[in-house]
Amino acid sequence: METGMGFTKLVSFVLILHHLLNPTVVSSSSLSSSNELSEIPNKFLDFAKEKELVDWMVGIRRKIHENPELGFEEFETSKLIRSELDKLGIPYNYPVSITGVVGFVGTGKPPFVAIRADMDALPIQEEVNWEHKSKIPGKMHACGHDAHVSMVLGAAKILKEHVEDLKGTVVLVFQPAEEGGGGAKKMLDAGVLDDVDAIFGLHVWHEKPIGTVASKPGPLLAGSGIFNAVISGRGGHAAIPHHSIDPILAASNIIVSLQHLVSREADPLDSQVVTVAQFQGGAAFNIIPDSVTIGGTFRAFSKASLVQLKHRIEEVIKGQAAVQRCNATVDFHDKPVPHFPPTVNDEDLHEHFRKVAGVMLGIDNVEDMKPLMGSEDFAFYQEAIPGYFFFLGMQDESSPKLSSVHTPNFIINEDVLPYGAALHASLATTHLLKAELKLRSTEGTLHDEL
Known about the structure:
Blueprint: H1 2-21, H2 28-48, H3 51-66, H4 75-88, E1 92-96, E2 100-106, E3 112-118, H5 145-161, E4 169-175, H6 183-189, E5 196-209, E6 213-215, E7 218-221, E8 223-232, E9 236-237, H7 247-265, E10 272-280, E11 287-288, E12 291-300, H8 303-323, E13 327-331, E14 343-345, H9 347-361, E15 366-368, H10 379-384, E16 387-395, H11 417-443
Parallel strand pairs: 3-4, 3-5, 5-16, 6-15
Antiparallel strand pairs: 1-2, 2-4, 6-16, 7-14, 8-12, 8-13, 9-11, 10-12
Helix pairs in contact: 2-9, 2-11, 3-5, 4-5, 5-11, 7-8, 9-11
């Protein structure tokens, strides 16, 4: 009997010692956090679909739509954002990069995760006749940035109402000048992502059904640059071309030669584009002009390919001009803002996105998409920290097809707003929860000397 008792005590001592040296990570609190990871997306979507919140987001979106502002001119848009953040009791920094606003929801302490909305409009005359049509001639929110702002504000409201779920801080990035101005680069240089672990961004998409999302890991959107060249010759009468040096002929040869950069110099498996979209020269049918101006864009999915294209574009333009006895100057307009890098999605964040969006929308509504040759200045953020960018469908399949972005007939299906707000809030909140679980797991590992 005494021997049996001693053995029992020995076993108990060994078990206790094992527990001290190898504590289990799965506690009741960690189980609770794991449950939250799966419950939050649906909880937030239900909250986002409540009529009061939907009407609020719609109202904000329409106010912004009526008063579109171009890059670094978003003063009224910024003022509206700050007013709504004030009402929500959310602190923020302003001004950041002229018109940018950066808000903070949560503990105010690490870890930090960011969600981003771009604010600027386009120089397009709106042709959609509706109650909230643009009031500014020649300017229009033709790319959905008005919806992006209202969705991040909607996410802010969700986060504020569920602040007890936040195990860190969500950084709200309201960014100016995405449309060619490189606002993301300026915000990055201003330090808005200092100490931030990850950033999420989205774009509404007219072709995908509402309630669906699409993205992929790795390169999603191409990097891009622009160029402008002046080809100078010697003008004269069209009847005596031998007395002139024809810059139109030189420019024509240049354009044809530029197409060979992709068809004959680029790896066929490395997608690239060189497009000349501007050709200006001559004002009369019988006069050879002194000079011609051409301009265009080049795009690729790697920075190395972009650098190579830039180098060869300049060589071809100057070389072909010289063959035709002309001179050429080339400007790549890469100062002060450099060319947009490729948009490259982090692999780990892709898995996080698929899980969160799959819970919220159903995994069949989370699509792996092919890369696009369009570009996004969100890529500047991804060069600094892990980032993830995705597309949010808004096509009502029972309604007429929506027009493409960057067109005067572009329309937002406002039913998309709750989805964007809930996805933003869910991706950020669950990312912070995962960070807490990882930290708890690390802290739970005791060293031998203990």
